[in-house]
Automatic annotation (TrEMBL):
Family, similarity comment: Belongs to the aldehyde dehydrogenase family.
Protein name: aldehyde dehydrogenase (NAD(+))
Active site (catalytic residues): 243
UniProtKB keywords: Oxidoreductase
Gene Ontology MF: a single term: aldehyde dehydrogenase (NAD+) activity
Catalytic activity: an aldehyde + NAD(+) + H2O = a carboxylate + NADH + 2 H(+)
Enzyme class: oxidoreductase
Top-rank taxon, per record: Bacteria
This enzyme's EC code(s): 1.2.1.3
Organism taxonomic ancestry: Bacteria, Pseudomonadati, Pseudomonadota, Alphaproteobacteria, Hyphomicrobiales
Keyword hit for ATP-binding: no
UniProt xrefs under InterPro entries: Ald_DH/histidinol_DH (IPR016161), Ald_DH_C (IPR016163), Ald_DH_CS_CYS (IPR016160), Ald_DH_CS_GLU (IPR029510), Ald_DH_N (IPR016162), Aldehyde_DH_dom (IPR015590), LUC3-like (IPR044086)
Positions of the Aldehyde dehydrogenase domain: 19-465
Amino acid sequence: MRTFSLFIGGHPVDGIGRRDVINPATGGSMGTMPVASAADLDRAVEAAAAAFRGWSTRSDTERAQALRACARAIEAHSEELAQLLTLEQGKPLNGLGSRFEIGGAVAWTDATAQLSLPPELVEDGPQGRVEIHRKPIGVVGAITPWNWPVMIACWHIMPAIRAGNTVVIKPSPLTPLSTIRLVEILGGVLPPGVVNVITGEDALGALMSAHGGIGKITFTGSTQTGRRVMASAAETLKRLTLELGGNDAGIVLPDCDPKKIAEGLFWGGFINSGQTCAALKRLYVHDSIYDPVCAELAAFAAGIPVGNGLEEGSILGPVQNARQRDIVASCVEDAVAKGGRLLLGGRPGNGPGYFYPTTLVADVERGCSLVDREQFGPALPIIRYSSTEEAIAFANDSQMGLGGSVWSSDINRAKEVASQFETGSVWINRHGAIQPNAPFGGVKQSGIGVEFGQEGLKEFTTIQTMFC
Ligand code: NAD
């Protein structure tokens, strides 16, 4: 593996040390990341601020063209990025894994190129004309998690630069190398300093949220860290977008055909081995079809191969890190201790890497951690309910409000139930599907603000009202 550096102002920079990056499929080192100092962060912010002057005054058309060039550059390096992503993140090359993630990064970049925010007319009358203009904020600090590192980096970088901002991005210390490589690739088509990357431990993120030269933080990660970012950003009144944790519920209504919905339910819960913010994390099934839904889901899940992501036949990979694997294991142990019945999995092997088997636990209720907290891994609790009102109350009994789903053959009934979810997104007969032209974000403690589409782009601007 080559040695990766920080990338600041268009140049590689060493940092003050190095730290191992672990391959989750083996538990061994797959490379090292540079560790940035506070002075490196200052240099990155200065480089971004210097680039802002030229970048923010480019025409809208030029910036759209630059984004399209970014999409083509990522596309040209897609297999290299996918291999690197699998090595450090663990997800397979195939299925909904690394190649899919890089494809998504390209699609989101192209879609963001097409957006624009022309001035809006409020009034044009005898008293004069009033217009709303959208202006870039300045330097945006982007902080990303380890589950979808390249795609989320593009969700942060692309709208920020499309609106005329410049960026300093800090990936998770668990998956830093694919983001460094992404920013190097973008450096081939963007002016120096427009996108900079620094890597280091979590404390580097805290320095960013407090930094006086950064005008906005766009953060994706846990609710706990989101609270810290918000508190520390208060001092400088930074703009914030916070995309945080979720504990999404799905409600299966009694009119479903269990065989027809099994595949959709499975991928709703197990995409990226369950390490997805808006994955299905609690499944509520009506008493009348509970047993057949459990049986069909277990039969489908048993046929999905789990293995080292570099092997072309693997469709799911390991959990990304030992800490997360242990959280999942302890949630399952707690559920079983409280009467849960294992339909599949639940007993980790003792081979190398952070593998945890695909696990389904039936006959569980509120009061166990697998139901009440975000497990963020390949284990799904299936809870029995007897009335729709009861299921909706269970689903909303959470401080989280990211997504939810309703499964039914009656679209009108499904929409009626869906509208009662206290969540930022709700799906019918699928779970977790997102697209670049539809806003996505959490309510309650799942976040503040939205990403994607016009609404997401606006978050990277401030308003200037012009009275002419
Ligand atoms: P995390 O909160 O531990 O870390 C996220 C990022 O924040 C990392 O880059 C980390 O280094 C940095 N960080 C840590 N402490 C910080 C601090 N005090 N100040 C600033 N930055 C700090 O999250 P994670 O474990 O990497 O990711 C998993 C979580 O992310 C899950 O809860 C998941 O639901 C959530 N997530 C949410 C979305 C969404 O769109 N809502 C998407 C993906 C992941």
